[in-house]
Amino acid sequence: MNWDFHRHSWWLQRTQWYTPGRLRALQERRLRHLVTHAYRQVPFYRRTLEDRGIHPADIRSLDDLPLLPVLPRRAVAEDFAALVARDAARFRPERGSTSGTSGTSLEFLRDRRTLSVGNAALWRFRAWHGIRPGARIAEVRGGIWRAPSGEPDLTSVSAYIPALNTLRLNLQAPDPRRRAAVTEALAGFRPELIRGSSVLLTYLSMYLLEHPEVAIRPRVVFAGGERLFPEQRRTIAEAFRAPVVESYGNWEYAVFAGECEEGRLHLAAEMGILEVVSSGARCPPGETGEVIVTSLWNHSLPFIRYAIGDVGLLEGIPCPCGRGLPTWRVLGGRDKDLLATPGGYIYLTTDLVATPRWRGKIDGIRFYQDARNEVLVQVVRGPAFAERDLEILYAELNEFLGGLLRISFEFVENLELTAGGKFRHIVSRIPNEK
Predict the structure, then answer these.
(1) Spatial distance between the Cα atoms of 94 and 92, rounded to a whole number of angstroms
(2) Helices 20-41 & 43-51, crossing angle to 10 degrees?
(3) Which end of the chain has fewer surrounding CB within 10 Å, N or C?
(4) Which 8-state DSSP code applies to residue 357?
(5) Which residues contact 370 (CB under 8 A, 6 or more apart)?
(6) What is the pTM (predicted TM-score) of this model?
(7) For 220-253, what is each residue's pLDDT tens digit?
């Protein structure tokens, strides 16, 4: 790890104890600098601010942010060239990308310093739970891996990264054979930290609970990628016999969050600004809305008021841990956790199969929708699944959905990945109109 990382780690160890007012002042200083830079060097923002009659001097505090428009994800793809700063090379950026539910790739640039601050924030969260640089880390992933030739590699189970002392495990989808291979690799590696998406960790935990002869005992498990529900947390903790910590991140390195020792999810306020808005207005603490983020460090391609696609709420109560970092709750992804109904949307939790009554009966489940009045439920049956269980599952789902959707079932051997190489709990072809 380089000198910048150590310098930023030392700085973040101090700033986490700043008062909320002092953290806000820190954010506002960096915000003023960022907006001035974007106005001078980024064609997209120069055009946007001039069209609105706004000068950088008008953005002095966080309260002035709503003067600026929201940057939707599609604009990053459509106006990529105009979003790149003319002096981008100064910041030694690297190209990053992420793919959404549809598999459409979104590309962007991340400054070297952005990565350094973000990685220092990640290790700060880990240090709260006794994990220090150099620890053995296992990452449970679900995407398509690439061979050196660039072709999809669907056979490899794991890859060890010596420089990071990290074992990356390719779970792909909730396939029992794949879980057996991943479990064997995990047991041999004996990680101190296991991290992965809440859904994939849940499926892996169910397999471990069905095979108690396999003992994998990390110090802590970090679950992220989607909301972590209480039943999932209990299942993962039981399987690994370790505390389960919620985390939040994004490939854009806009702002991260991690759970402290008191179980509250803290934002890395030094990285960026997180707003929660509804109908164009900021939500007060405790009110749910769309998540808008501003990266305070990325100058090569600034993310200012970027609609990252999540839903959440800010909390206004100080945390007993004593840190001044704001706390919040992520409630899900606007595009990936909603089922459409004839009259609106229903938020569908991802912890259905984590409940003890379905252990051994359901090895995987996915909801597929291409019409607002129906949903196809794809089920990977476990060895204990009985004919009557289908009636019980239908009754549970129908009650949860309020009878608003016609439910049909399809039994499958495994759940294939999306076009972008990800496992999705819900695959919907209904345009999001919210």
Answers:
(1) 7
(2) 100
(3) C
(4) G
(5) 428, 429, 430
(6) 0.84
(7) 999 988 788 888 899 999 999 999 999 999 999 9
